[in-house]
Amino acid sequence: MVSSLADDPIDVFEEDLILRHALACLLNAVREALTTGVGVRAARVGGALLVYAHGAAAAPRINTGFVSLYGVIDTSLEITDPGSGWTPRMDSGAYRGSRVGLHGAEPLGGGNAIVFTLENGFSSADGALQVPGSIFNRQAWLGASGAWGELRVGRQYSPIYIPFKGDLDAFGAGTIASGLNNLSKITPYANNAVTYLSPRLAGFSTTLMVAMRDASEDDGNGIDGYYVSASYRLDRLHLLYARQQTHGSGALRANLGGANYAFGKLHVWLSFFNGDGGAPVYHGAGGSLSAQYRFSTNARASLGYAHVRDYTTPGGSADQFSAAFEYSMSPTLLLYFSAAYLANHDDSSFTLRGVNVTGLPVAYPGAPVAGVQFGVIERF
Length: 380
What we know:
Layout lengths: L3 H4 L10 H17 L4 E7 L2 E7 L11 E16 L5 E6 L6 E11 L2 E10 L17 E8 L2 E9 L3 H4 L14 H5 L5 E9 L6 E9 L10 E12 L2 E10 L5 E12 L2 E12 L4 E13 L4 E12 L5 E13 L4 E13 L23 E11 L1
Antiparallel strand pairs: 1-2, 2-3, 3-4, 3-5, 3-19, 5-6, 6-7, 7-8, 8-9, 9-10, 10-11, 11-12, 12-13, 13-14, 14-15, 15-16, 16-17, 17-18, 18-19
């Protein structure tokens, strides 16, 4: 639900089908408010600002739909040595890509609703669009939701990206600390996509996506890619698997999966990944082990290790060791600190990066990379 963005910053912003949960949290509050007052009202429910209006004369035609504005501003300072000396820089979106967006829903009755999301990424360092010339580069989709699940059409997060960004390592696959992010390759977004997201039944859920090619891509059968993910939850255990196969220029096959388990204040993640293709070409396989300890509801520390075998170069591989600390100043303000050391072997050239941050290239093949990072995330 929307409130989870603030309650548990490690949990991915995109993870649990925001609109489906937002409907459950907000719809009853909207209906109650609409039947007890006249005029224009605004209510903050579950961390989202909800604005609605109605008049007494229009009461028989009351519309209980809603649109909520949300956003994330993620700015950090990073100092990294890619083998050529320490280089300072300011990053935007290293942990939770800076963005602004709109969620909306129009109830149809019977627990069903039309839903949509429009979301754009930007740089909090200079105010530039994340992708020049694109208004909603992260998400632009329309769908329908109900007890049967959710159907979406348009530009969306890929099913392999959703578990990747929250359930497979202690760092949420973000900041320089995430070896899972630094050493693997997936497709985070898909255009012209049709997606079905199932409800959770007996602990199981799945997401299926087919993405069609743009009109300019006339090669092949018109299918740009297939994506699937599966999830199983049992008490404090969570098991996940996801796969993608894209076609055409820069085609990429990738698999990832893993498990996480909460032992009281200690949470442990174990994951694997592999991939072949993409642009630039990636061909590797590896795994990640990480853990997080909660000192309080506000403070938590994480440690992690990741390894990858790099098949693009003979004998190539890399190991990363990481540490991170986070402190929630308020339900919407998060401070984070990350540190990492990445050891490339033979001619491998992996580097430290972030969710929306391109890493500094290594000074030479096989060069080690070290870095520290301090950041602030504000949600609204």
